[in-house]
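Two quick folds needed for the group meeting slides. Do the first one here.
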Amino acid sequence: MSDDASRPSESPSSPRMARDGVDLFEALDTTIQTGGPEAAIAKLIDDLDSAGDYRALLDALLLKARHDLGLPLLPWNSLSGLAEPGRGRFEERYVEAIRLVASRYLEAGEIPSAWSYFRAIGEPEPVAAALDRYAGTDDAEMLGRVIDVAFQQGANPRRGFELILEHYGTCSAITALEQAPPADPAIQVGCIGALIRHLHRELHSNVRADMARRGWTVTESPTIAGLIAGRDELFADEAYHVDVSHLSATVRYSILVTDRDALSLALDLAEYGRRLSPRLQFEGSPPFERTFEDHLDYLKALAGDDPEPALSRLRRRLESPAEDDFEATVPAQVLVNLLTRIGRHEEALELLAERLGHLPDQMLSCPGLTELALRSGRMDRLAVHSRRLGQAVSYLASRLQPARSANEERPTAAGKRTD
């Protein structure tokens, strides 16, 4: 905390009445005369705290800090002009005061206000924990501010995304994920998992409701595939049970999830999608032109089924791209991700070196040469490829880095989204 410029900014306000109903300023004058400065400051702090005027409470706490430390009382909220060691001691009290005020805001349910204070002192954890417990509110303005703090400002992106789903719906959640995805890949994957579960619940419920309207016996299958088995009538006349654009987007994102339950639900969504009328199955982006069919093969491979259908299809899509044609490298990057996810690291390493070695790591949406060499323990192959590609630094590092044994723990990471 270097100076008062880092303090949260709010409109100051002060209660005119003390807790006993007496004019606050008269009460302070009386306390100065009867109890001295310490008692007057303590009374001010107590009254402001009781009144919930936490912004003014911060200034009162800083006034007390200056008085206790024997520093000039004005300006009470600034570090400028203070010499050491007084500056350091005051800064400690400054942080303590902000922490206390932030906690008061949290206790009052004012998450956005609390965030501005906790963020100022670099302590986001209390707000993140409060957001985990936050159940929403009928106050639309407050809800919007809380979601902004949680998702856009990064206090707790996963919970913020869940709140978007719960209160604004699937469309808004997908838009948020596309426009401002969490910077942490693990958090992004958690958000995608929440999206999959949300849409699966909605679709499962809608299919059951349609079956009930038709007078059919509604099975207790937990899967959508179980509900629709042998029920082609559900898709007659281009019928559908959930917004197809939402379904397509969710299935596209689903290849990033690593949780087994989320993968199973994503498979169920793709299985439903492939049963839709061809007129509703819009063409996707390479290498997933058939959005539901192609993602279904990929998801099956991730889930532990035979990976060859997905691998064979992706291999057929490989091209020899020009060095400046990034889009043409997408199938190879998707294939590298799949090989990595199913543990075939050496194959991924060779493919990357052959097809993508000309790309810098920042242009890759899959693991790079170094990561794959570490995963496979093949420093010798990294040396070969580094020499061929003219990468002297990685070549020397690969020669000096001892190869890891197959039993050693290696880095783990989900594949990155490429479509």
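Then this one, please, same format:
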Amino acid sequence: MEKKFVIRNSLLTDIFEHPHTRNIYNMCAILFVGLSFHNLGIEYLTTGRVTFGFEVIKTSFVHLDKAIFVWSCCFASACALFFIFKLWLSLRTCAGGLTTVFDWLGLVCLALYYFYSLKLVTGAIRYFNFNISCMLLLTLEQPGLLMKVHAFVRSKASEELPRLSFSKYLYFLFAPTLIYRDAYPRTKTINWKFVAQCLLEVVAVFFVFPFSAVNCFPSSERWAQKFTVNEVLLLIVEKIVYAAIILVCPFFMGFHSFHNFVAEILQFGDRLFYLDWWNEHTINGWLLKYDKLVQDWLYYYVYRDFRKHICDKVLLAKLTVFLLSFCVHEWIIFCCTGGLVPIMFCFFVVAGLPLTFFEIPKNMLSVIVFWCVTLLLIGIAWVLYTLEWYARWKSPLEDPTLWELLVPRFLTCDCVLKI
């Protein structure tokens, strides 16, 4: 069954239209303002001044111009691929009995394009020595761009007489979806009041979230000393509260506000970017609902194609999806920290995959246990990734071997842990 696009709002947009549930939005806004004053109070009492997070943002985006240049190169290559693909289709049509050869040649070239696109981003991050925000900008955007390219090529290559339109392809590159169609349901007008509201939400979370995140790190004076195992465990416990912020703020800013902002500007009708993941009690349900755009892409272009063209085994298809998701997440973390801490492997493959085959009854207890465990795991990941980044920064390796890249640096250097 193919995905059907219909005109519909995001789930939170409909929920907040009701007067009673609108109060939840107001309460979140109040908590948001309270958290802001809390962070400002901490900053004033500890440093004697208030910067409103501008210094954090300025430091994080010090190389923003170079990051935009690298992204522009990646985007230009995605646009150029349209014309290369069009040329490939023309040559394949005239190939006669060599269509199979052209198919394999196109597949190899596409795989090389994916590989070198990711390599370009990785090399640019190392060459320009980007800060964490610019790293995230590139490493989160590039996989999404490649997924769009793959969706377009996969959709058009399977058509008997494909009609290619660059304007439709360009619209797809900006539209908040990863499933290609020549046409999508469009709204008749642009609600500029809704656009302003979404933009205000994006800006508010953009300024407060990094400031809140920085305040949950140990101070620079504390980093000068080694951490004991008990202190690391204490850090993990302390970060459980901030784990909820790490989970909710990027979701609300990215999946709700920013996607709705882009959709409204482009008059893109189908805005079901997520489902009610907050009501889930299993990791499989949460993964399916938290980011519906990526899950749709994984289902149509990985899971379904794997079962149709390679092997009709549910287990192998699920394993392929989990491994691909794990590899992309680990690539993002590797680019940002400089090392490999296989936390995502434990989350996705070791813990996530086996649990998809068990039916866990849904009740209040199962929901509470699931979210307590989830926040604990996010806290563990937050602390361990922070330790790895700090270890790679304080004790860098000029020419690391493969083993030194694969083994977490904070376990081998003598500058972080005191065991």
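Slide caption for protein two: The chain has 17 helices and no strands.
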